[in-house]
Structures are given as structure tokens and as C-alpha cells.
Design goal:
By secondary structure, the protein is mainly alpha-helical. Helix content is about 70%, strand content about 0%.
């Protein structure tokens, strides 16, 4: 299926060497419309924190066992988390089966399937910058609702599409819909996570991990819904229509529940394009490129993994189970892993480590034994790629607020995904041409991509590590 007030370098670890991000003192954040999200500030969080005695500083509450992760969140974060959950149910009821539908159902060549999947990702990730800029200017509500309407139309169109031209049109519309609502939801979740960090001491990465886990819970249920429809003989068309029905429910729910707010006042020069402040921000651009390497790698779950499963078992019947395994791992392990990570690693270290684990996932495929039903190499890839994702995604999203002006948070969140989407467009077409190459060559090339991202991540500011035991979001 996300970035915040500027912080002084002292807040991000002693070894960052990064200049302080500009404080968004003039930003309007609609505290009346979003009472639990960040409001205007006239001093940096580090200055306020330094002025308080240790006894006055917020301490994360002790784990009570009976409290759930969701109960520790503000009501606005809970709404955004539920949004991510519902979005992914509808989306993943369709996406895992798109490549097989294009290749087997419509008879497209492998390079064309890769291109269509890349266009879908580019129209989504590549245009996040548009959705992010619109969110900064108009607030999240109109952007989210418009995106839901377009996603419903796109799924209905894809259900009927039978030619290359109509399929491309449908997937572009589906992707653009997400380019509207996803940056709106993600940037608001990050904004609220930073606000909760300042108020209670709960690390932002831990709050964002709850958001990620909810999204993966939806990604776990979505493929199961799609598989059920396929098993019942409904075919790909039924999966598309089921996804559309889910988004009808999302649209109705958010039209009622998502708060209204006045237009925001963006900084001078901010619009649908990247302003000079973003283009000249070298640490942020390095983060974009490192994150791009991750997303190119993650996209192989939809391109290289289906081919590996078919090679090992003779069909793609086990693909839904592997997607379910990935989502289940995130649902079960994301929060404990993030609690462990934020106490021991800076965000930069977590990002580098996550990319290294992703690279190991690709490297292990050609050397892993076949295992039961020949699925062990594919399962190893899914497990390691998912563990890497769990380490790096909250860390990367949590770094964005330290690198950009708060008033450009939506734009920066969109830019992070837009750069990644462009990389996926190129990477998917290139990978599609390598699918018939010898296995060791394919997997070596794929492993080199996240390793390059890890090298870029080493140039980033370290970010701040949690100072002690973190229990503000509990099991």
C-alpha cells in the first residue's frame, strides 16, 4: 500500500552530521479538524524536551498485557490504520493474480506482462507526488474519497478488459487511484505518529509499525478472498468485482467518518511539482534512491516469484499461500521486531540491515534445496524479503520528517514513492527480460539491487534511537 516537523540534528543521533531541517512554524495543520494530529509549533521538539526536567518528560506506559496495540493509538491514527487495512483487502484480492491473467488468460508475452505490471506500479508510485501535493493543499479527505471512486471504476474496467489497450487503461486508472489516497493516508499517519511521539514518548517507528501491520493484515485477507473466488470458479473477473465492492464500502465509510478540515496553506513555491527545497535536499534524495532499491526488490514477489513457484511445482497454485505467509509474518512479527529494532538500532542502521536481509533472500534461492513440494527456495525468499521489509519500511518512513519541512510532508511522502515507482517501471521491464535467463544470473542481479540501496542508505543521517525500553504500544 508514509513524514514531519523538522528536528534539530541533536535529536537524530550524535553521528548524523546533518543540518537541522527547517521548522514549519507557519504551517497550518488544522488542529480543530484533526485534534489529535500535530498542531502548529513555535519551537522545535528538542528545545521543548530540553526545557523539561527528567521527571516531567513523558514516559511510555508500562505494558498491561490486556491493552492492544490499537488501544494505545489516538482515534485519528486508528481511523487511518483501519483505512490501510480495508484498502489492502480490496487491492490484494486482485493483484496477485494479475500476472497469470495477463499471461495465461490474455496470452501476453513475458516482457509485455512485466511492462504492464511496471506501468501499474508507476501510475501508482510514480504519481504519488501528485496525491501528496494535493493533500498538502486540500487536506486528506477529498483526496482519499476521489481515489476510492477512481479505484472502483478501475476494477470494474479491468474486469471487462480483453485487449492490451484496455488492460493498460484499466491498470493505469487503478494505479492513479492509489496515487491519490495512499500518500494522503500515509502522510497523515506519519504526522500523527510524530505527534504521538512528542506527546507520549512512543517512537514514531513503532506507531508506523502498527499502521504497516494493519496493511499487511489486509494483504493477508485479500489474496485469500481472491483465491476463494478462483476456486469457486468465479475467475479473475469475480476477483476484480469483489475488490470494487470492498472499495465501495471504504468510500461510504470514509465519506461519513473522515474529518473535514479547511484548506492548508502550503509554503511558497509548493505545488504539484517538486519545489527546489526538495530537489536540492541530498539526504532526502538519497533516501528516495535507497527506498527505490527496496521497492524494485519487493515487486519481484509479483514477477520473479510466480515464475519460481511454477518452475518448482508445475503451477502457480501455491502462490496464494506464499503471499499469505508474507502477510501473516508481518501481522505476527512486525510489532515485536520494531520494538526490538528501535531500542538497538538507529533508523539508518535498520534501513541498511533491512536491505541486506532482502539481498540475502534473493541470494539463497539458487542454493536452497528443493524441500517439500519444491517450495523451499520460494518460501525462503518470501520470509527473508518480508523480514527485511519489516526492518526498513518503518525506519525509512520515520526518517522523512527529519529531512523535510512539515508543510511539505505530503509532497515528500509522494516523492519518496514517485522516485521508487519510476525505478520499478524500469526494473520490471528489465527483470521481465531476465526471467528466462539461468537461475544464478537472475538471482544474482536481483540481490545486487538491495545491496546498492544499502550502500546509499549508509550516507543518510543516523536518526534517533529509542533511549530505553519501549512499551507505549503494547501486545
Amino acid at each position: 500500500m508514509t513524514a514531519h516537523p523538522g528536528r534539530a540534528a541533536a535529536d537524530t543521533g550524535a553521528d548524523t552530521g546533518a543540518p537541522a531541517a527547517p521548522e514549519a512554524a507557519g504551517a497550518r495543520t488544522e488542529a480543530s479538524a484533526y485534534p489529535e494530529s500535530a498542531g502548529p509549533r513555535t519551537e522545535t521538539p528538542s528545545q521543548r524536551e530540553a526545557a523539561r526536567s527528567p521527571s516531567e518528560r513523558p514516559t511510555p506506559p508500562e505494558s498491561a498485557g490486556a491493552r492492544t496495540e490499537a488501544s494505545a493509538l489516538t482515534s485519528y491514527v486508528r481511523l487511518l490504520t483501519a483505512t490501510q487495512f480495508a484498502f489492502n483487502i480490496g487491492f490484494y484480492a486482485v493483484l496477485p493474480y494479475l500476472a497469470a491473467h495477463l499471461g495465461d488468460g490474455l496470452g501476453m508475452a513475458g516482457w509485455l506482462v512485466g511492462l504492464v505490471l511496471g506501468l501499474r506500479t508507476f501510475s501508482q508510485q510514480g504519481l504519488f507526488v501528485v496525491g501528496g501535493a494535493l493533500t498538502d493543499r486540500y487536506g486528506p479527505r477529498p483526496v482519499v474519497l476521489t481515489g476510492c471512486v477512481l479505484r472502483i471504476a478501475g476494477f470494474c474496467w479491468l474486469a471487462q478488459a480483453g485487449s492490451t489497450t484496455t488492460v493498460i487503461g484499466a491498470v493505469l486508472l487503478i494505479g492513479f487511484a492509489a496515487a491519490l489516497f495512499s500518500p494522503a493516508v500515509e502522510s497523515e499517519a506519519t504526522r500523527a505518529a510524530v505527534a504521538q511521539e512528542h506527546a507520549s514518548g512512543t517512537p514514531r517507528a513503532q506507531v508506523l509499525a502498527v499502521f504497516s501491520a494493519a496493511g499487511q493484515a489486509g494483504a493477508f485477507i485479500g489474496p485469500l478472498l481472491g483465491s476463494l473466488l478462483l476456486l469457486l470458479g468465479g475467475g479473475f473477473r469475480s476477483a476484480c468485482l469483489a475488490g470494487a465492492v470492498v472499495f465501495v464500502g471504504v468510500l461510504a465509510g470514509h465519506a461519513r467518518l473522515m474529518p473535514r478540515g479547511p484548506r492548508r496553506v502550503p509554503p511558497a513555491g509548493a505545488g504539484s511539482r517538486l519545489p527546489p527545497g526538495i530537489l536540492s535536499n541530498r539526504p532526502f534524495l538519497a533516501l528516495c534512491l535507497a527506498y527505490s532499491c527496496y521497492l524494485v526488490s519487493y515487486n519481484q514477489l509479483y514477477l520473479a516469484l510466480p515464475g519460481e513457484v511454477e518452475r518448482a511445482t508445475g503451477s502457480q497454485g501455491a502462490l496464494g499461500g506464499l503471499f499469505a505467509l508474507s502477510s501473516l509474518l508481518v501481522v505476527v512479527a512486525q510489532l515485536p521486531l520494531t520494538r526490538w529494532s528501535v531500542r538497538r538500532f538507529t533508523p539508518r542502521t535498520a534501513l541498511v540491515a533491512g536491505l541486506g536481509v532482502v539481498a540475502a533472500g534473493f541470494a539463497v534461492v539458487p542454493i536452497a534445496p528443493g524441500g517439500p513440494a519444491g517450495l523451499l527456495p520460494g518460501a525462503a525468499l518470501v520470509v527473508l524479503l518480508t523480514l527485511g521489509q519489516m526492518l526498513l519500511v518503518p525506519a525509512a518512513r520515520g526518517l522523512v520528517p527529519d529531512l523535510v519541512d512539515d508543510r511539505r510532508l505530503g509532497l515528500a511522502t509522494g516523492a519518496l514513492s514517485s522516485v521508487s515507482g519510476l525505478a520499478v517501471l524500469v526494473g520490471s521491464a528489465a527483470t521481465g527480460t531476465l526471467l528466462d535467463a539461468p537461475g544464478p544470473l537472475l538471482w544474482a542481479v536481483l540481490a545486487a539491487v538491495p545491496l546498492a540501496g544499502a550502500g546509499l542508505a549508509l550516507t543518510l543521517p543516523a536518526g534517533r534511537r529509542a533511549p530505553g525500553p519501549v512499551t507505549g504500544v503494547t501486545d
